[in-house]
C-alpha cells in the first residue's frame, strides 16, 4: 500500500506540502483526472471548431480519449486494480458525460424527453464493454 510519505517522497515534497493541497490520498486521486478533463474539452473544442456545427461531428473528443487510453493503458490498468478503480471509473464517466450531454440532450421542457435523453447519455458513456 502506498502511503502519503511515499507519494511526498516520489514528488520530492514534504508531507506538510502534500497536506497543504490535499486532505487524503483519495483527494489527490480525484484531482488528477482534472488535467485529462481539460484536454478532452480542448480536443472536443478543436473538432467542433473545424465544423460549422457540433452535430456534424458528435463525440468529437472520442478519438483523442481512445488514443490517450491506449498510450496510458499500463497506468490505468494498475489504477483499476486497486482501491482507486471506482474513483477513476467514476471520473471517466463524469467527464465524457459533460461533453456528450449537450450533444445528445437538446434543451426541452418535456420531462420525459429529458429522462430519455439522459438515458442516451449514460448509455453512450457508461455502457459496459463487450466481453
A few lines on this structure:
The chain is mainly alpha-helical and 131 residues long. It has helices at 4-11, 15-21, 25-31, 34-50, 62-71, 73-81, 85-104, 111-126.
Summarize the SSE layout with pairings:
Layout: H1 4-11, H2 15-21, H3 25-31, H4 34-50, H5 62-71, H6 73-81, H7 85-104, H8 111-126
Explain how this protein is built.
The longest helix is centred in the C-terminal third of the chain and has 20 residues, at 85-104. The protein has helices at 4-11, 15-21, 25-31, 34-50, 62-71, 73-81, 85-104, 111-126. It is built from 8 helices and no strands. The radius of gyration is 18 Å and the shape is elongated. It has one domain. Helix 6 (73-81) crosses helix 7 and helix 7 crosses helix 8 (111-126). With 131 residues, it is mainly alpha-helical.
Amino acid at each position: 500500500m502506498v502511503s502519503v510519505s511515499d507519494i511526498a517522497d516520489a514528488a520530492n515534497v514534504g508531507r506538510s506540502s502534500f497536506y497543504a493541497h490535499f486532505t487524503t490520498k483519495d483527494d489527490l486521486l480525484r484531482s488528477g483526472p482534472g488535467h485529462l478533463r481539460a484536454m478532452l474539452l480542448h480536443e472536443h473544442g478543436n473538432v467542433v471548431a473545424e465544423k460549422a456545427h457540433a452535430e456534424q461531428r458528435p463525440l468529437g473528443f472520442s478519438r483523442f480519449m481512445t488514443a490517450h487510453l491506449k498510450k496510458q493503458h499500463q497506468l490505468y490498468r494498475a489504477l483499476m486494480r486497486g482501491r482507486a478503480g471506482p474513483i477513476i471509473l467514476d471520473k471517466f464517466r463524469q467527464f465524457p458525460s459533460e461533453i456528450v450531454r449537450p450533444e445528445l440532450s437538446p434543451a426541452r421542457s418535456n420531462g420525459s424527453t429529458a429522462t430519455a435523453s439522459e438515458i442516451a447519455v449514460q448509455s453512450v458513456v457508461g455502457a459496459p464493454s463487450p466481453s
